[in-house]
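The freezer alarm interrupted the setup, so I double-checked each line after restarting. Inputs confirmed:
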Amino acid sequence: MQVRREPLADQAAELLLTRIRAGEWQLGQKLPGETTLAPQLGVGRSTLREAIRQLAGRGVLASRQGAGVFVTALDVPEDWDLVLRRADIVSVIEARTAIEAEAAALAAVRRTPTELRAIGRALAARARRRPDVEEHVDADMAFHRAVVVAAHNPVLVDLFDSFVPRSRIAMVEMLRLGTAADHAADHTAHDLLHRAIADRDADLAARLSRTHLTSLKESLT
Amino acid sequence: MQVRREPLADQAAELLLTRIRAGEWQLGQKLPGETTLAPQLGVGRSTLREAIRQLAGRGVLASRQGAGVFVTALDVPEDWDLVLRRADIVSVIEARTAIEAEAAALAAVRRTPTELRAIGRALAARARRRPDVEEHVDADMAFHRAVVVAAHNPVLVDLFDSFVPRSRIAMVEMLRLGTAADHAADHTAHDLLHRAIADRDADLAARLSRTHLTSLKESLT
DNA sequence: CGGAACTCACTCCTCAGACAAGTAGATAGG
DNA sequence: CCTATCTACTTGTCTGAGGAGTGAGTTCCG
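Predicted 3D structure, all chains:
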């Protein structure tokens, strides 16, 4: 576990948010002035201002020149996509593992012939070599999505879709940074998953999904 | 309507957002440096920094010291809770199965002694008979949540929490409509899960979670 | 030739100080 | 009592300086 050095402004924002949630300042009330609050938190005034801006962007605070900074909401409608974007990539991959393994098992049982064909087409598209990294990642995502769609569960599909942006960024980065991508082994793994779903082998499909994503996780740490 | 003088930082943030949405910088790409962008927008560096912080709070931008400022999203999207409320309860339970089975396996590996004790306490509280159906459901949810928390993965916790309201409604309904609830068998199933996590048996923990939720799903159809 | 260690330019991060602009309560005058 | 002004306090903006992390190019060694 790496000790990530978080910017002071972010720390200050989090600290403020906890104090707001704790009820230190009621809704609509004014916070202490910047010149009071900054030394109290042990940061410079500009740093505190950046923290306030950050919370303002999230809708928690609002400042009025000459008057002060006011609390506009105590309960942040914790936007789900925001959580994902901020989250550690390892946590995201683990959640993806849960979703996709389950979906693969369900897909093996429920897939229609049409969906099976769609998975096969996505697999073929994925196998084509591309010079552009992003295109390859997109093709990979399309294959995985086809599997999830075949599970006939809209909740799982929505979950998968919400994971895509965050995973995409991480995978593009990983491939760009020359992490040795064993294309051949990668392709056989996907091919096996395709066949397991074709054979209606739910257990194998889940296992294959799991091992594939686990190795992805390990290559990211 | 009076000409409301908007702070420069807010104007800069809006301007940046429109340029991002216009596709001037792709998703995941780096923005020009502060020293370049500030004069270009006609504002000071600190003002630009506050604008960036504001967008960071909204999840559109993310800055990494030494590297630059990157686009993390082009738009802030839909409401997740709405999707769940509309969804079929079977789909929700299936998604819960995916999440909780994975979480149970991780919890078996990662749980601290404190967390194990918390799970035990939740189990004891759950065992106490209650006249009120809702209280029993809440106690059950608390137990399952304790397991997910022990998995040390904030994404899984948030996912679980988002499933709670919908699941709760369904379970209360089910218990009210006299669906034979075998309390004794139910309790032993939860007790076994507790022990599997105590014994660090990840495989067993996952299997127990899965069978428990599967039977719940079948009793709902 | 290949890879590891180093250098260095570039980036964001933080602080301090100064002044401008706006607000709201206190105050003085009608 | 009402109004206009004053004034202390607040946020807004800019500048300049130095600290710290990143990543690409370079050098050095086996």
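Quick read of the result. Residues 7-9, 43-47, 50, 64-68 of chain B lie near DNA strand D (CB under 10 Å from a C1').
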